[in-house]
Amino acid sequence: MSSTTVPSLQVVGGRRWLARARDVAGVERELSRIWAAAAHDVEASGDERELEAARGEPHLAGRLDRAGDVRVRMRTSVLTLLVVAPRPETAERALDAINVLATRHPSRAVVLAPGDLDGPSRFEAQIFAQCLVPARGAVETCTEQIVVGCGGELAQHLAELVTPLLIHDLPVVLWWPDDPPIGRGQFGELVEEADRMLVDSGTFRDDGALRLVALDEVVRAGRTTVFDVGWLRLALWRELLAGLFDHPLLTPELPTLRSLRIDVAKPGSTLRTAKAALFAGWLAARLGWRLVEPLAARHGAAFPGAMFRSEHGLVHLEIRAAAPGSDPALRSPGSLARVELELGRRGHDVRARVTRQADHLLATADWQGVQVCRRAGRLEHFGDAPYLAEALDRGAPDRVFEAALAQASLLVGAAA
Amino acid sequence: MTTAARAPRQSPPKGRPRTPSPAPNPLRAGLRLERVPEPCTIVIFGGTGDLSHRRILPALYNLRHAGLLPSETTVLAFARREYDDAAYRAEMEQAVETYSRVPVEPALWQDFAPAIRYQAGDFADPASYQALADRLEAIDAERGTRGNRLFYLATQPSAYTQIVAGLGKAGLARPDRGSWARVIIEKPFGRDLESAIALNREVTRVFDEEQVYRIDHYLGKETVRNLMVFRFGNGIFEPIWNRRYVDHVQVTVAEDLGVEGRGQFYEEAGASRDILQNHLLTLLALVAMEPPIAFEAQAVRDEKLRVLRAIDPQWSEARIRRDVVRGQYGAGWVGGTAVPAYRDEPEVAPTSTTETFVALKLEVQNWRWAEVPFYLRTGKRLPKRATEISVQFKRPPLMLFREAASEPEPNLLALRIQPDEGIMLRFAAKVPELGLDVRSVNMDFTYGSSFATEAPEAYETLLLDAMLGDASLFTRADEVEAAWGIVTPLDETWASWDHAGHDEDLERYEAGTWGPQAADRLLERDGRRWRRL
After folding, report:
1. Which residue from B429, B439, B450 is facing A104, i.e. has the nearest CB?
2. CB pairs under 8 A between A and B
3. Where in chain B is the domain with CATH 3.30.360.10?
4. If exposure means fewest CB atoms within 10 Å of the residue's CB, which of A49, A89, A381, B352 is most exposed?
């Protein structure tokens, strides 16, 4: 491939650079030009001590710190982030999140926007670099963003396209915000390049079963550490439910759980069960249940159910559509609305539930009809940034998630 | 072998059964970081004081806001003033509105307010503690706090022993089976070695050491962890972290502020008691310590203690004159503002000899550090607020670049703790485009600013840790005593000189400068100089 036009390099404001390229080699060339320009970009700070220190050595002007030492401008990259965003609005969302995290996780971000796969081959890249000063008096950190629009045959070979753009030695994080084609060829090739992967089981198509099973296979392959936004969003649900069972009266009752009902939001026609399956999978993994009957529509029942066996006996699971309410928070399909547990044997009855109420979760537990424990927590309306941060922060796999996913995959296996 | 090393240093006295650990909750796995403490009653002694207004209540509200405080948890203020619950609540609402990190939400406050209670009582009156015990039982029954108690001593230090003894007599230090009782004690913990030992003795007569949480709020968890991760999470620094490669270490805790209306307190304390005894010595201990056997409270504190014990506590007058500089600020300019001299500050005696600056040279006498000087300095009204540790390495054995225009400075590694946490490495590099000019280059790394969430206040972290029973950020009795063991002889010698009218060593420095010139001479004598900050 060769560059067809002379790429333009312009300085936007003091510490930002923009360039364009028509091929991968062009991208690499532009990046070197940008960093060479950055090193020579002299900004007169007006600091008298600095000016004095540089007196007689004009080539050092603007590059000395207060003590008169030469300051090195550093590109403190910690990883390469690959984002696949076929839809423009997704690409924009991803860039927002990346910018929020720029100073915390200085990285090279490559946003791939594959378009029409059947059209002509095309490649156009926008290269954006910036140096930010995170706080007053702090040292600037520099980051790079490369947005690649591509189509045709080229877009079917994304892995080959990005390999030259990865930073040597640093971990690669793959983020696929929309419904990722897990298990398909193109996806598999990209995953092979990645050390960590972030997906959102909340956006999996149809009921989510197919993707959940495929995701579990990626985890089992053991090469890539998987993070799931859907799972991370369940953290407060898990936290509050676990909190109820910190109560000394209730902890010993956990093994006696016999019924689990999960209500999920169903604004459309399909009941998305991925998140509910992950939640049930989490309980199954933590409490050592074995699947007896996978999730399936049951004769005469309106909603799918499943059955596990615990050391105390059978555990019934039912996933239901939440009563359509006016709560706008429940418009996101598959979101949990309520979790209800029945426990206790031999003469006493224990119920525990976590319910979504607007922007709060309320968890309560009753012992023979008397409330013994109550917890509440606020659901934060996060954008993507905190979840992306989780994938960027944590190198180590989340074993609790992996165990929950394995159980969830078994649970929905028949449906997939 | 490891079993023996991990054994607790202080076993509980006979006849007091340890609380059996509750059955584990299998759902907790992977959720540890977001652990919510068990419900408890937080009893604040001195609940009408400044600390309660500015720090404790706002921190508790913020914890509640973050969902980290169970709704049963109750705050019971205990002080002399005659308030009722409603009046105290109203006052605290004001305080939280003024000082809280997050804005107060009326709905959440309505939920939180009933958890705030007030109990009037006299610290000296045994009947007050009995009334407190009755009130706590009533609260347990009403609010479900399960007999868990966190006593917070936010009073004048002089009241500590009285309160602890009162709690002991009322049986409040010995919780029922399955419950816990802990006590948080604020700095200053004693004012010299003798008073610290006496206080420790009184406190441990009533509480077991593991029930006692001595606050050193200065050490936010981040800083401590960063230092430890930097040293023990990287393989390339530890091999050179010793007397073969390190020339010397400097620790600076500089403040641009003066005494800020705390003249009376500062007259009693001075820089050595206020900063040297705790902050400076803790930073020194963290830099100099051996790798702990585990990253947990006891193991880390064991290693810190070993460093403090390796510092020679014998201060002859000659050694003090040679290795210690004390100073007091005069009038001057700080950050473009004219500021008065220390002796002209409110509540300060016009003839005061209290030191507002200390610089000293210490040696950690062990195999790793023998003959490597540690230079420590702290002061008020210095040009800026900065806390930094710097490790200066030895020069290369042979200088090859004789024709270079300037000789580069030796390598230096700076660990910046505030204002911006970061790490700086200085090395020599050739200046391009010129003949052969070798210059020092600073490679500067700053931990990025945080995103989406705001960092919690130190008090939030500490209160939460105390409720969870995590003592890593608190100081152990033997650490406090070892630190006082180093500082007290100094203070006593100075006091004796002052008493005899020989305070010539107390050097005046202009506010807004880096302290008295004697502090510079302390290093120049050894052929070194303070870093420019």
Report:
1. B450
2. 121
3. 221-456+471-524
4. A381
Residues A252 and A122 in one domain: no
Nearest CA among B352, B366, B273, B245 for reference residue B312: B366
A396 touching B, CB under 8 A? no
Q: Do B451 and A254 touch (CB under 8 A)?
A: no
CA distance B283 to B251: 8
Where do the CATH 3.40.50.720 domains begin and end in chain B?
38-215
For residues A105 and A141, is the Cβ–Cβ distance under 8 A? no
Which of B23, B25, B448 faces A141 most closely, judged by CB atoms? B448
Would residue B279 show up in a list of annotated catalytic residues for this protein? Answer: yes
Write down the CATH number for the domain with range B38-215: 3.40.50.720
* Bond into B419 cis (ω within 30): yes
Question: B23 and A243: CB-CB below 8 Å?
Answer: no
Q: Are residues A177 and A237 in the same domain?
A: no
Is B443 within 8 Å of chain A by CB? yes
pLDDT in tens, A366-412: 988 888 888 888 887 667 777 887 777 777 889 999 999 999 999 99
Nearest Cα residue in chain A from B429: A70
In a domain, A283, yes or no: yes
* pLDDT, tens only, A239-264: 899 989 988 788 889 999 999 999 99
Would an 8 Å CB–CB cutoff place A376 in contact with chain B?
Answer: yes
A67 → closest Cβ in B71, B433, B532: B532
- How far lies B302's CA from each of A351, B367, B375, B480, in Å? 46, 17, 23, 12
| pTM for the whole structure | 0.69
Domain CATH for A400:
3.30.360
Residue A26 sits in the same domain as residue A167: yes
Calculate how close chain A gets to B177, using CA atoms only, in Å: 12
* Residue among B65, B217, B279, B502 flagged as catalytic: B279
Nearest to A74 among B65, B420, B443 (CB): B443
Cα distance between residue A295 and residue A318, in whole Å: 9
User: d(Cα B133, Cα B175) in Å, to the nearest integer?
Assistant: 11
Percent of chain A with pLDDT over 70: 81
CB within 8 Å: B448 and A70: no
Same domain, A381 and A277: yes
Show the tokens assigned to B400. 């090859």
In a domain, A3, yes or no: no
> With bands split at pLDDT 50, 70 and 90, how would you rate the model's confidence at B35?
low
Return the minimum-mean-pLDDT range out of A302-316, B68-82, B218-232.
B218-232
B197: nearest Cα among B476, B475, B480: B480
CATH class of B221-456+471-524: alpha beta
B105 CB within 8 Å of a chain A CB:
no
Instruction: Judge whether A174 and A191 are in contact, CB under 8 Å.
Output: yes
- Number of domains observed in the structure of chain A: 2
Residues A190 and A241 in one domain: no
pLDDT value at position B385? 84
Query: What are the chain A neighbours of B452 within 8 Å (beta carbons)?
Result: 100, 382, 385-386, 389
Domain range for residue A251?
Answer: 232-412
pLDDT at B2 over 80: no
Residue type, A135: A
Contacts of A283 in chain B (CB under 8 A): 27
DSSP 8-state class, residue A155: G
Residues A259 and A378 in one domain: yes
**Which spans in A41-87 are helix H?**
48-54
Main-chain phi, psi angles of B352, to 5 degrees: -55, 140
Confidence check: pLDDT of B60 > 90: yes
Classify residue A105: in a domain, yes or no.
yes
Q: Is the peptide bond before B397 cis (omega within 30 degrees of 0)?
A: no
Q: Is residue A52 part of a domain?
A: no
A316 shares its domain with A369: yes
Token readout for B422 is 């970061």
